[in-house]
C-alpha cells in the first residue's frame, strides 16, 4: 500500500469536496489510506488552494453573469413597455440586484468558510508532519543507542570469553599444582 500510485487529480479532489465528501470518504473511494491522502494534499496544497479559489471565482462570475443577463433582458422589455411598466421593471431590477448581491455575499461567505476549513486542515497537517519529524529524530536516537549497546555487548562478550579462557587455564594449573602437592606430601610422608 505504501508504494501505490495515487490516482487522483487536484480537479477530482476539488470536485469531490464540492459534492460534500470528507477526506476519509475520498480516501475510501480512491482505495488509499488517510495518511496517503494527507501526504498527497501536502505536496499539492498550493494547487488545491488555487483550484478552490478559482472554483469560487467561477461561481461568483456565473452568478454575476446570470444577474447581468437577467438585467439586460429586463431592460429590453422595459424599453418596449409603457412608463408604468418601466417603474415595475425598475423595481424588479432592484429586487434582482439585491438578490444578486445576497448571492454574492453568500458565495463570499462560503469561500471564507472553505478557506478557514482549508487553513484548519493545513494546520493539522503541519502538526502531524512536525510530530512525524520528532518521531523520526527519536527513532534515529534510539537506533544509535541500540548500535552503542550492541557494541557494548560485543565488548562484554569478548571479555567474558577471555575470562573463561583464563579461568580454564587457571583451573588446569591449579589441578596440576594439587597433584604435585599431593605427590610431594606422599613422598615426604612415606618416603620414596
* Share of helical residues: over 70%
Form type: rod-shaped
The secondary structure category is: mainly alpha
How many strand units? Answer: 0
Count of discrete alpha- or pi-helical segments spanning 4 or more residues:
5
Task: Characterise this structure.
There is one protein chain. With 192 residues, this protein is mostly helical. It has one domain (44-190). 89% of the residues lie in helices and 0% in strands. It contains 5 helices and no strands. It has helices spanning 10-18, 23-30, 34-43, 45-80, 83-190. Helix 1 packs across helix 4 and helix 4 runs antiparallel to helix 5. It is rod-shaped and about 155 Å long. The model has no long low-confidence stretch (mean pLDDT 87).
Task: Record the SSE blueprint.
Elements: H1 10-18, H2 23-30, H3 34-43, H4 45-80, H5 83-190
Question: What would the keywords be for this entry?
Answer:
192 residues, 5 helices
What's this, in brief?
This protein is 89% helix and 0% strand. It has helices at 10-18, 23-30, 34-43, 45-80, 83-190.
Amino acid at each position: 500500500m505504501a508504494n501505490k500510485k495515487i490516482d487522483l487529480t487536484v480537479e477530482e479532489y476539488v470536485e469531490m469536496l464540492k459534492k460534500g465528501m470528507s477526506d476519509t470518504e475520498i480516501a475510501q473511494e480512491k482505495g488509499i489510506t488517510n495518511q496517503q491522502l494527507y501526504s498527497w494534499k501536502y505536496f499539492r496544497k498550493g494547487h488545491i488552494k488555487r483550484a478552490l479559489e478559482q472554483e469560487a471565482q467561477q461561481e461568483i462570475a456565473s452568478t454575476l453573469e446570470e444577474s447581468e443577463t437577467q438585467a439586460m433582458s429586463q431592460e429590453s422589455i422595459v424599453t418596449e413597455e409603457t412608463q408604468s411598466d418601466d417603474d415595475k421593471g425598475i423595481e424588479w431590477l432592484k429586487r434582482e440586484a439585491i438578490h444578486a448581491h445576497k448571492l454574492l455575499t453568500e458565495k463570499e461567505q462560503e469561500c471564507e468558510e472553505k478557506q478557514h476549513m482549508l487553513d484548519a486542515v493545513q494546520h493539522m497537517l503541519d502538526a502531524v508532519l512536525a510530530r512525524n519529524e520528532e518521531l523520526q529524530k527519536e527513532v534515529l536516537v534510539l537506533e544509535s543507542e541500540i548500535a552503542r549497546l550492541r557494541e557494548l555487548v560485543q565488548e562484554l562478550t569478548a571479555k567474558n570469553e577471555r575470562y573463561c579462557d583464563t579461568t580454564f587455564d587457571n583451573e588446569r594449573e591449579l589441578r596440576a599444582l594439587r597433584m604435585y602437592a599431593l605427590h610431594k606430601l606422599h613422598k615426604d610422608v612415606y618416603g620414596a
